[in-house]
């Protein structure tokens, strides 16, 4: 056991002890001096990253705006086609109504012509009768 104590004693040798303490202290200082943060942590790389993010966001926004404009353009074209079809249908309906109204007016005109013709015939007949009766009256 004496040799074991010697070994223990040699490890706690007063000459070796300050050297070991110095080495331990150096290691602790080195650990403390070792940066826990990345080397560019305090640089403006965060600004660069945010500007990259901003430019990427701006590009995405611009692309979305272009896509939005394309969609609106397509929807406007569809809407215009529908509106044109509705306008054409309304115009056809108006034309049909005008044709019916014109046919009604022409039929009424024909009836009025017939009535006028009958009235003229009746008047002519009455005038002929009156002439005959006035001739008979003058002769008698």
Automatic annotation (TrEMBL):
Location of the region described as Disordered in the Swiss-Prot/TrEMBL record: 1-57, 76-96
Compositional bias (Basic and acidic residues): 19-34
Pfam families referenced in this protein's UniProt entry, alphabetically: ZNF380_CC (PF23406)
Highest taxon of the lineage: Eukaryota
Residue ranges occupied by any ZNF380 coiled-coil domain in the UniProt entry: 37-115
Protein name: 6111_t:CDS:1
Species of provenance: Funneliformis mosseae (Endomycorrhizal fungus)
Source taxonomy: Eukaryota, Fungi, Fungi incertae sedis, Mucoromycota, Glomeromycotina
